[in-house]
C-alpha cells in the first residue's frame, strides 16, 4: 500500500492524517497558509514520504490552495464530495466527529475507494477563478449598500454613497481584468467564443463557466459537469407510498448555480429554444421553479457540449429550438 494522506480542511487550519504502508498513523495540525504548506512538505519528508495520495473534501474554497500545492509538488490529489465521506463514515459506524477523526476517515476512504486523481487547473484558470470570486464579492457588497441607502440616516448616507461609487469603479476595473485574462490565454479565448454562441449566456456567465470548466476538460460527460454544479435531479421514492417531488440535489458548487440562475430566466423568456422548453414543461404541469432548474441544467449541458465538441451552438441539434 502507498502512503495515504487524509486532510480535513477548515479556514484557518488543516488536520492531516498520514496512513503509512504498515497501517500505522501519524497526525499533525498545520496552518492553512503557504507557510503551513511548507511545514507539511517538511513533515512528509521527515517521515520518508516521497509520494503520497492525498484526499480532501471540496468544502467551499478553503481546499483549493493546499490541493494545488500538493499537485504542483507531484503528489496524487483526490478531491471528493463531502457527502461521500459522510456516507463512508456512516457505513463504518463512526460515532465520533472531530477534525482529527475526520482526517483519518478521509484517509480511510481514500485507501478503500481509490478516488480518481484531481487535475489542478492551469495558472490562467486559477487566476480567472479568483477574479470571478472577487467580482461576486464586490457585487454582493454593492447590493448590501444599495439596500441600506434608502433607509439610512443622513449622518451615514454620504459614506454609503461614496462606498457605492468606489464599488462601481472596482467592479468595472475587475471586469476589465477578467476580459483581459481570458483574451491573453488562447485556449480560454477560444472556449469563451464557443460559449458566447449559446443564446442566454452573457459575459459574466461565460467568465464563471470558464473559471470552473475552462482549460483542459476534466469531465467525461455533460452529466458529470451538471453534477459538479449540483444541478442533477434528486429523486425520493420508496415503496408505493413515498413519492417525493424531484428536486435539484444542490450537492455541488453553489457559485455555478448562482451564475446560471439569471441566464436561465433570460433563456426561458427571450430565446426560442428556452421558450420551447418552458412551454413543453408547462404543458406537462411542471411548476415554474422546476422549469427554471431544468433550464439551468440544460444551459450547462449545452455549454459543456460545445466545449467538448469545439463547435458553436447549433439550434438544429436541439428539438426544443424554435
Summarize it:
The chain has twelve helices and nine strands. The protein has 322 residues and is α/β, with parallel strands linked by helices.
Describe this structure in words.
The protein has 322 residues and is of the alpha/beta class. It has helices at 34-46, 64-72, 82-91, 99-113, 123-148, 154-184, 186-196, 203-213, 222-228, 254-270, 272-283, 288-309; strands at 4-9, 13-19, 25-31, 53-57, 76-80, 233-234, 237-238, 242-243, 247-248. Helix 8 (203-213) runs antiparallel to helix 10 and helix 11 packs across helix 12. The longest helix is centred in the middle third of the chain and has 31 residues, at 154-184. It is globular.
Topology (elements, then pairings):
Layout: E1 4-9, E2 13-19, E3 25-31, H1 34-46, E4 53-57, H2 64-72, E5 76-80, H3 82-91, H4 99-113, H5 123-148, H6 154-184, H7 186-196, H8 203-213, H9 222-228, E6 233-234, E7 237-238, E8 242-243, E9 247-248, H10 254-270, H11 272-283, H12 288-309
Parallel strand pairs: 1-4, 4-5
Antiparallel strand pairs: 1-2, 2-3, 6-9, 7-8
Helix pairs in contact: 5-6, 5-8, 7-8, 8-10, 9-12, 10-11, 10-12, 11-12
Amino acid at each position: 500500500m502507498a502512503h495515504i494522506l487524509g486532510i480535513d480542511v477548515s479556514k484557518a487550519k488543516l488536520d492531516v492524517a498520514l496512513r503509512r504502508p504498515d497501517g500505522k498513523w501519524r497526525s499533525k495540525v498545520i496552518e492553512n497558509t503557504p507557510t503551513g504548506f511548507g511545514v507539511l512538505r517538511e513533515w512528509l519528508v521527515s517521515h520518508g514520504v516521497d509520494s503520497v495520495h492525498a484526499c480532501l473534501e471540496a468544502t467551499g474554497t478553503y481546499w483549493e490552495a493546499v490541493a494545488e500545492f500538493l499537485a504542483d509538488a507531484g503528489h496524487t490529489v483526490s478531491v471528493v464530495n463531502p457527502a461521500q465521506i459522510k456516507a463512508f463514515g456512516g457505513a463504518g459506524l463512526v460515532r465520533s466527529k472531530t477534525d482529527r477523526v475526520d482526517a483519518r476517515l478521509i484517509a480511510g476512504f481514500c485507501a478503500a475507494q481509490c478516488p480518481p486523481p484531481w487535475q489542478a487547473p492551469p495558472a490562467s484558470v486559477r487566476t480567472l477563478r479568483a477574479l470571478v470570486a472577487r467580482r461576486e464579492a464586490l457585487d454582493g457588497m454593492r447590493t448590501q449598500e444599495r439596500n441600506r441607502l434608502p433607509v439610512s440616516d443622513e449622518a451615514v448616507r454620504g459614506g454609503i454613497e461614496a462606498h457605492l461609487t468606489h464599488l462601481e469603479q472596482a467592479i468595472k476595473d475587475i471586469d476589465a481584468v477578467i476580459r483581459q485574462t481570458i483574451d491573453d490565454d488562447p485556449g480560454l479565448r477560444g472556449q469563451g467564443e464557443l460559449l458566447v454562441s449559446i443564446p442566454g449566456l452573457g459575459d459574466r456567465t461565460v467568465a464563471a463557466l470558464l473559471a470552473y470548466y475552462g482549460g483542459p476538460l476534466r469531465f467525461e460527460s455533460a452529466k458529470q459537469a451538471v453534477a459538479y454544479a449540483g444541478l442533477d435531479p434528486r429523486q425520493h421514492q420508496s415503496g408505493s407510498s413515498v413519492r417525493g417531488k424531484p428536486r435539484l440535489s444542490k450537492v455541488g458548487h453553489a457559485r455555478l448555480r448562482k451564475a446560471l440562475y439569471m441566464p436561465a430566466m433570460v433563456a426561458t423568456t427571450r430565446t426560442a429554444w428556452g421558450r420551447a422548453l418552458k412551454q413543453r414543461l408547462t404543458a406537462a404541469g411542471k411548476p415554474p421553479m422546476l422549469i427554471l432548474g431544468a433550464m439551468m441544467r440544460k444551459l450547462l449541458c449545452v455549454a459543456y457540449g460545445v466545449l467538448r465538441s469545439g463547435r458553436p451552438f447549433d439550434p438544429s441539434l436541439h428539438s426544443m429550438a424554435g
